[in-house]
Each structure stands twice: as structure tokens, then as C-alpha cells.
Design a protein that fits this description.
Elements lengths: L3 H9 L6 H26 L1 H11 L3 H13 L3 H5 L2 H16 L2 H30 L10 E8 L4 E4 L1 E2 H10 L3 E15 L5 E8 L2 H6 L5 E2 L14 E4 L1 H8 L9 E4 L2 E8 L12 E4 L14 E8 L5 H16 L10 E6 H5 L2 H35 L1 H9 L4 H37 L15 H27 L3 H6 L4 H41 L9 E7 L5 H16 L4 E7 L8 E7 L12 E7 L2 H5 L6 E2 L13 E5 H7 L10 E4 L9 E7 L14 E5 L8 E8 L6 H11 L5 E6 H7 L2 H35 L1 H9 L4 H33 L12 H27 L3 H7 L1
Parallel strand pairs: 5-10, 7-9, 16-21, 18-20
Antiparallel strand pairs: 1-2, 1-11, 1-12, 3-11, 4-5, 4-8, 4-11, 6-9, 7-10, 8-9, 13-22, 13-23, 14-22, 15-16, 15-19, 17-20, 18-21, 19-20
């Protein structure tokens, strides 16, 4: 009998019918040919009958039959993507994965780690840069500042005189408000307290769209000169001072020694702009302040509906050009700039670092996806016969691809649930590690609806990235070869190459992350072990603010507290200054006498600190040349300064003696006196990662404008060097002065390092997870290779190969992948380290120690991942191996 079905199928191959339509048509035509052959062969013979019937497969009648079948056929798309077919594939996928619990568990855990870390990082970015202020329509709340291109100033405040003219002339904002930030001494409870304070215009609360919990906010009359003094309390201050009594409205509260009437209490979570506990009216001085005069304000506004930031920028820039004509000719050229509030107030470096970390954790997700891809490729090869049979029975390639993607989506869905749980754990840990004092008003790190949408997006990405290649590979399997050859050698070779390539990519990505993690880890170690050049052990610090507005009274107060502390038994040193060394340096232009500068903006910057003579004994700072600042260096004597060794190297030649030379802080326009250099000290740590050993000028606290606030530090016995001793000394002089921000000097110094340590810990976590995933992936590929090459290894051993030869062959393959991946990863990691150079301290992006350490960690992991399968390969029994196929 002639095989009519084979002949018809060969003829229909070029017609590209749906497999089901093709099968039905083959059956129909083959049956017709068999019936006609029986009739014709009786008359013309078997050979002639066969030739006549085969000729019919190429005439117009056959073409018409194919056309009729194509017209009657249901569109392939509806057959492939009906809800019924997708649900069927999901049931089949669940049953199939249930039969492979190892693949299911490993894939879920790998993707869960990747999705969890990525989600945690996105939650941090969302809570820091995206979420917006917790007020009505936060995207319309703008921050207005001044820029000065020539001096590279991009965020200068707005003088009160300019603010009033902007508010009167602008057309882009519904409301326009200004405020200042600072602290205030509040008296009314058991102890005086120093709290965050802000002086605001009444319109600030209209910009924010916030109403008080009790009483009222300010009205324009409160901002008029001579108006009754009023105050708004935060919820925590009202609760602590008045025990939550609503009768507090109308009571009098003493602020900086002046009585204010409480007119309202703000909602519980309101603390705008940051950690503010009391709001006071800003004196607008009757609107008669000249352009450029008055206190410097932070300005905010609410954009009108439909007004873009570009239009608002143009509007205020035109006004700033008009105001420029009213300024003195020597005034800086200021231009107004309008930005979204968070974008303007969040340092750009923070955004760059966070997005760099998101990119890094995306690499972890890619490593996880690569692991799952390898698992599914191995699984695809193991199921190649099943896939071949399905295809032979009529399943289209698209249906095969869909089945594979459905299975990877099931893995991704389970991983998304696990990842969400892991992200929640990570966010809780991050919240506990991230100090509340460092958070901005709007920051909220949590799993919210936007973050859950991100989880779904990552699950979809994981489905495609991890499942697409195995899906395409399954659709490309040669059905005929699979059904004839159970060894699948060709498919195994092709899949093996893909797996090895993927593992090399995994190792490259892991190397990149580990290298960056290594640089940041060394940064953290360097920060913790750095010698700042001054003592921190046994030193206790705090801040105090004098209550008197009189300069002479403040001087007497500070001197009296210093004397009382110095005379305390067990005290080895007592210090007063405008801030603490290390974490509290301020900056100023410094002009060296005898040097000429073309323009004032060309005068260089240095860091400064005003100190009392106790600075040297309290912090153990020695003098290299000249003398220290002494008690005789007071307001009635010639101003003096002590400079750092770095300052001498920067501004003087090696043969020039700096002692006796004069310098001036602030430049000519500041109007400060010339100071004589009387001593040189070692360069002290400045708590700046970019440049931790900066040149510095140390001046006499008693010869500077001290303001109202001073930092205090004491060193001595445990009873003397304590916050209690500082409070006793202050209370003995003025019981209404609060002592706040108390902390050991070591803790105060570490505060500036906190963000770097926190982000560094996150980076190290990313790197370790990536290393584990890459090692597991490499082990899986080695095990897969050994399993697929059992017969080959059996033949090699039967022909005389030694166990060492087999181990060398298997381990050598893994070593090649590792070396290639590490080489690429080190190139990428070095480039990435340059992008985060600003986070590095005491280590450069080319530090060989970090490269060696990371290479060792990867090498050990890769060695273990390669050796274990290699040892198993040497235990193959040649007889069993040859029978296994």
C-alpha cells in the first residue's frame, strides 16, 4: 500500500496551514486517494494509478480544496490565545512544576531574592524622590531660589525685599509664601527646651493647603510690624507642654525670652519645613524693604492650574531682570529659578547615588533571571521528547512558546509574593537603621500601592527575561531528530552552550556588584578607623543657646559657663566654639595679604572654626609651630588665627614662614579685620568624604561674632565629662537656657558617616546575594554538563582516561567561564566605581587590594561550584554510563 498521508503532508508543507487544519485535510485527501486508487488500479495497474493520483496533488482541484479549507479555518490566534487554552496551559504548568519541586523551589527563591531587593530599593527611591510632599497636589508646590551663574551659586535664598516684589508681580502662582528656619528656646514646661522654629508668612499655610487641628493659622495682620506676637505649636510640643489640653489656645508662651500668644495647634504629623515645633510670624516690615535687603527667605509657591514650571520660570526670571536694574552696579547678577520642592531641596548627589543603587540591584535581578533561565533550559532539554510529541500531534510553535512562558510566569508570580515579603523585612530593617533625625518631612519607606505596581512590573520583566529564551529554544527543537534520537546530543550541545554563556554573564554582573561592594566596604572600614587628628574618647558634647539678645550679656554668660566647667573637679578640658571639629566645619573665602585677586569670586575657600583656648587641651591638638590661641586673645586685642598644615602647603611656599602673615575671611566685601597667623596645627579631619583633609583656619571664639548658640565639649572623669555636668554649669548661670544635642564626641563624629555606612551595607548585601546566585548558577551548569556527558565520560574512562583528567576537563570548563566573566565584570565594576567616587573614602577606584579580595572570593566560590560536579564525574562507572543511553 502507498503511504498517501506522507505524500499529502509533503505537498501541504508549503501551504502553512494551522496544524489542526492540516491534519484534517491530510486525513480527508488521503482517504479520497485510497478509494480512487482501488478503482483505478483494477483498470490501469498500480503504477499508472499511483502516478495519476499523485499528479492530482498538483492540479487546480487540489488548490481549490486547500483554499476552501483555509476559508473555513478559525483564525489561529483565537485558537492559541483563548481563555480556555491559557487556563489549560496554567493547569498543565502547575502539574509540571509540581513534578519538579527542586526547579520550582530554586527558581522561586532566586527570583524572590532579586525581586525583593529591587522592590526594597525602589521603595527607598519612591519614599525619597518620587512620593512628593504630604499635602494637597504636591506636584504643584514649587521652591523658588536665586541663582548666580558667575559665582556658580545655584540655590541662594531670596531677600525679603525681592520676595515682596515677586509676590506682587508674579502671575504663575495661586499663593506665594516665605519663611526662615532656625531654633528657639521655649520656656513653659519643667525645663527650657531648644526646638526647631520657623518664621513664616501667613500665606505659607495656603501654599501647603494645611489647616490647624485647633485654633487658627496666621493671618496677614500677624505679619505686620507692631502686631501682637502670636505662635503656632506643633502637636508634639502642645502635647508635651500642655498635656494635650485644648485650653492652651490663648495662653502665653515664652520664646527666646519674649511672650507669645498661642493661636493654634497644627496636625499631628505636620512639621514643615523640617522638624519644626513652633511657627512664629515673619515681620514683613510694612512692605517697605528695598530690593536685596532684609532677611534671606526660603520661598515656596503653589502653581496655578495649567501653569507649567517652564512658564513660572520665565515669569519670575523676567521679574528678576527688572529687579536687577534697581540693584547697585556691584551687586551680583541674580536670577530666579523655579523647581518642584523635593527636586530643589534634595541634594542631587543623593538622587544619583540612589539611582546608581537601583541600577546595581537590577543587576542582581538579572543574575537571578539568568539562574532561572538556566534551570528552565535544563528542564526544556529534559522535556524535549514531550515537546516533540506535542508538536507532532498538532501543537503550533506559538502554543509551545506560550506554554513555556506560562510556566515562567507561575514561577515569577510565586517569586513576587516571596519578594514582597523579603522587601518588607528589608524596609523594616532600613527604617530601624535610618535615623529619624536624618529623614525629610515627606519620606515614607513602606510597601504602598505604587510599590506593589512595581512588584508586578518586575514579575513581568522576570517572566520575559527568564522565560523567553527557554520558550524560543523549545519552539526550535527538531521534532524529527528528537523522536528518532533519545540522546538529544545536538540539543544538549546547543543548550549547554547557552547555559555556559548565561553563567559567564552572571559572573560578570556579580563581579561588578562585588567590586563596588568591596570599595564601599573598605570606605566604611576607613571611616571607622580614621584618626581625625584630635581626641574623641572621653569627650562629651552638647549645644547651648543664650537667652539674652544683648551681645555683652551673651559674652558674660558664655564666659561664666566656661569658667564654671573649667573649675569642675576632674575636668581635663572645657571647650566652647561655634561648632565641633570634624563634623562642624563651616566654609569661608580666605584672602591672603600680599596676593592679588582679579575678582572677589576668585578668592579661594577654606574651612573655619572659632574656638576657645580649651580647644587644644580638650581635643588634644598639638601646635607644630608658633603658639595656640590663648585666653589673652579677646575682643580688645589684635585678631589672630591658627592655620592647619594643609593650609600652609596650599598657600605658602616651602621656604615661606606663615607665622606673622595676615589673612582675612569673607573677602573685601565682608568688611572683616585682618588676622595674624600665630600658629600651625596638624591637618584635622573635616568629615567630608570628597576631601577629608582640607585646609583650615582656626580663630578665637572671643574675637568672633558668637551669635546666640555655642557648641560645648568637656573631657575628664566620667562624673565631670557628662551632660549632667554641663547642665549644672548652665543652670547655675541661667536656668532658662536649655542644653540640647548632647552626645559623646565619637557619636557626633560618626553622624556624618551614617548615610555612607547605611548605603554601603545595602551595597554589600546586593553583592553577597549576587555572589551566592552566581555560584549556584555555575554549580547548576557544571552539574548539568556532567549529567548530559555521562556517556562521553564513560567512554573516556573506558579508553583509559584517569580521574584527574576528567576533573581537569570539567573544572577547566568552569574556570574559563569564571575568568571571562570576572574580566568583563572588573571592567564594568571599575567604571561603576568611578561613578560613585564621591562615596569613597581612603580608597581609589583602581585600588588593587579590592580587586584581589573580590577575585579571591569569586575564585573560591567558583572553585567549589566546579569541583563538586567534577568529583562526581570521576565516580561514573563506565559500564553503567555506556548502558544509560
Amino acid at each position: 500500500m502507498h503511504d498517501w498521508r506522507t505524500a499529502v503532508r509533503a505537498r501541504l508543507a508549503a501551504e502553512r496551514l494551522h496544524p489542526q487544519d492540516e491534519a484534517e485535510l491530510v486525513e480527508e485527501i488521503a482517504q479520497h486517494l485510497e478509494e480512487n486508487f482501488a478503482e483505478l488500479s483494477a483498470n490501469v495497474g498500480d503504477t499508472n494509478a499511483r502516478e495519476q493520483l499523485l499528479a492530482q496533488l498538483h492540479d487546480s482541484t487540489f488548490e481549490e480544496a486547500v483554499s476552501r479549507r483555509r476559508a473555513r479555518a478559525t483564525p489561529p490566534r483565537s485558537r492559541t490565545w483563548t481563555p480556555t487554552s491559557v487556563l489549560r496551559d496554567m493547569r498543565h504548568g502547575l502539574r509540571s512544576l509540581r513534578r519538579s519541586p527542586g526547579t520550582f523551589a530554586a527558581g522561586t527563591v532566586a527570583l524572590g531574592l532579586g525581586i525583593g531587593l529591587t522592590t526594597m530599593m525602589y521603595s527607598i527611591i519612591y519614599g525619597t524622590l518620587i512620593i512628593g510632599l504630604p499635602f494637597r497636589d504636591p506636584s504643584r508646590i514649587a521652591y523658588i531660589s536665586h541663582t548666580e551663574i558667575k559665582r556658580h551659586i545655584i540655590d541662594a535664598g531670596v531677600a525679603l525685599g525681592d520676595f515682596e516684589r515677586y509676590a506682587a508681580g508674579q502671575t504663575s502662582f495661586e499663593t506665594f509664601g516665605g519663611l526662615t528656619r532656625g531654633t528657639a528656646t521655649v520656656t513653659g514646661g519643667n525645663l527650657p527646651d531648644r526646638v526647631g522654629a520657623s518664621r513664616v508668612t501667613a500665606s505659607v499655610f495656603d501654599v501647603l493647603g494645611v489647616r490647624p487641628m485647633l485654633g487658627r493659622t496666621f493671618v496677614p495682620a500677624d505679619n505686620e510690624s507692631g502686631a501682637p506676637l502670636t505662635a503656632l505649636l506643633s502637636f508634639p510640643l502642645w502635647r508635651d507642654m500642655y498635656s494635650g489640653d485644648s485650653a492652651a489656645i490663648g495662653k502665653t508662651l515664652t520664646v527666646n525670652g519674649t511672650p507669645y500668644t498661642i493661636v493654634g495647634v497644627m496636625p499631628e504629623t505636620f512639621e514643615f519645613p523640617e522638624r519644626v515645633r513652633i511657627w512664629l510670624p515673619l515681620d514683613l516690615r510694612g512692605g517697605a524693604v528695598p530690593v536685596g535687603d532684609g532677611p534671606t527667605l526660603n520661598v515656596i509657591g503653589r502653581l496655578r492650574n495649567g501653569v507649567s514650571y517652564e512658564r513660572a520660570n520665565s515669569d519670575l526670571e523676567n521679574l528678576s531682570r527688572q529687579l536687577a536694574a534697581q540693584r547697585p552696579p556691584s551687586s551680583p547678577e541674580l536670577r530666579a529659578a523655579v523647581q518642584p520642592y523635593i527636586e530643589a531641596t534634595m541634594p542631587r548627589k543623593v538622587g544619583r547615588i540612589l539611582y546608581a543603587m537601583l541600577a546595581a540591584v537590577m543587576l542582581v535581578l538579572l543574575v537571578a533571571c539568568a539562574n532561572v533561565t538556566n534551570l528552565l533550559l535544563d528542564r526544556t532539554l529534559g522535556r524535549s521528547r514531550e515537546i516533540g510529541i506535542r508538536t507532532a500531534l498538532g501543537a503550533s510553535r506559538l502554543a509551545v512558546v506560550r506554554q513555556s512562558l506560562v510556566e515562567s510566569s507561575i514561577l515569577a508570580a510565586c517569586a513576587a509574593v516571596l519578594g514582597t515579603l523579603l522587601a518588607q523585612v528589608g524596609i523594616v530593617a532600613f527604617n530601624s537603621a535610618f535615623p529619624a533625625a536624618e529623614r525629610r518631612l515627606w519620606m515614607d519607606f513602606s510597601i504602598n500601592p505604587s510599590v506593589l505596581l512595581f512588584v508586578l512590573a518586575m514579575a513581568a520583566v522576570a517572566t520575559i527575561v527568564s522565560g523567553l529564551l527557554p520558550a524560543i529554544q523549545s519552539a526550535r527543537l527538531d521534532v524529527a531528530a528528537i523522536l528518532k534520537d533519545e540522546s538529544h546530543s545536538t540539543s544538549s550541545l546547543r543548550v549547554g552552550r547557552m547555559s555556559r554563556t548565561i553563567v559567564a554573564v552572571e559572573i560578570a554582573l556579580s563581579s561588578t556588584l562585588l567590586l563596588v561592594a568591596g570599595f564601599i566596604t573598605k570606605t566604611i572600614v576607613n571611616l571607622r578607623t580614621v584618626d581625625p587628628g584630635f581626641l574623641t574618647s572621653g569627650v562629651y558634647t552638647a549645644r547651648i543657646t543664650a537667652s539674652s539678645p544683648d551681645t555683652a550679656a551673651r559674652r558674660i554668660f558664655f564666659e561664666s559657663v566656661e569658667q564654671r566647667l573649667t573649675s569642675t573637679p576632674g575636668m581635663d578640658g572645657a571647650y566652647f566654639g561655634n561648632d565641633l571639629p570634624g563634623s562642624g566645619w563651616s566654609g569661608s573665602r580666605v584672602e591672603i595679604e600680599g596676593l592679588r585677586y582679579e575678582r572677589e569670586e576668585n578668592i579661594p575657600f577654606t574651612i573655619t572654626l572659632a574656638v576657645t583656648p580649651g580647644f587644644f587641651s580638650t581635643f588634644g591638638v598639638r601646635v607644630l609651630r608658633g603658639r595656640a590661641i590663648t585666653p589673652a586673645d579677646r575682643g580688645t586685642t589684635a585678631p589672630v588665627a591658627v592655620v592647619s598644615d594643609a593650609f600652609v602647603r596650599r598657600f605658602f611656599t616651602p621656604t615661606t614662614d606663615p607665622i606673622g602673615r595676615r589673612l582675612r575671611l569673607g573677602g573685601p566685601s565682608a568688611g572683616h579685620e585682618w588676622m595674624t597667623i600665630v600658629g600651625v596645627v596638624p591637618t584635622l579631619y573635616s568629615a567630608s568624604i570628597d576631601n577629608p583633609w582640607r585646609d583650615a583656619v582656626i580663630t578665637s571664639f572671643w574675637q568672633q561674632d558668637r551669635g546666640t548658640t555655642a557648641s560645648v565639649a568637656v573631657r575628664g572623669s566620667s562624673s565631670a565629662a557628662s551632660v549632667a555636668a554641663i547642665r549644672r554649669a548652665v543652670a547655675a548661670i541661667d536656668p532658662n537656657v536649655p542644653v540640647y544635642s548632647a552626645a559623646p564626641m565619637g557619636e557626633a563624629l560618626m553622624r556624618s558617616m551614617g548615610p555612607v555606612q547605611l548605603l554601603g551595607t545595602v551595597f554589600v548585601t546586593f553583592g553577597v546575594v549576587a555572589l551566592v546566585l552566581a555560584a549556584i548558577g555555575l554549580y547548576a551548569v557544571m552539574a548539568f554538563t556532567v549529567h548530559r556527558r555521562v556517556r562521553e565520560m564513560g567512554i573516556r574512562m573506558a579508553l583509559g582516561a584517569r580521574a584527574a583528567d576528567i576533573m581537569r576537563m570539567v573544572a577547566g570548563q568552569g574556570a574559563r567561564q569564571t575568568v571571562i566573566g570576572m574580566t568583563v565584570g572588573f571592567v564594568l565594576g571599575g567604571a561603576f566605581a568611578r561613578l560613585i567616587r564621591s562615596m569613597l573614602f581612603g580608597v581609589g577606584p583602581n585600588d588593587p587590594a579590592v580587586f584581589v579580595l573580590v577575585a579571591s572570593a569569586l575564585g573560591v566560590s567558583a572553585f567549589a561550584a566546579c569541583v563538586i560536579p567534577a568529583i562526581r564525574a570521576t565516580r561514573v562507572d563506565p559500564v553503567v554510563a555506556l548502558k544509560s543511553e
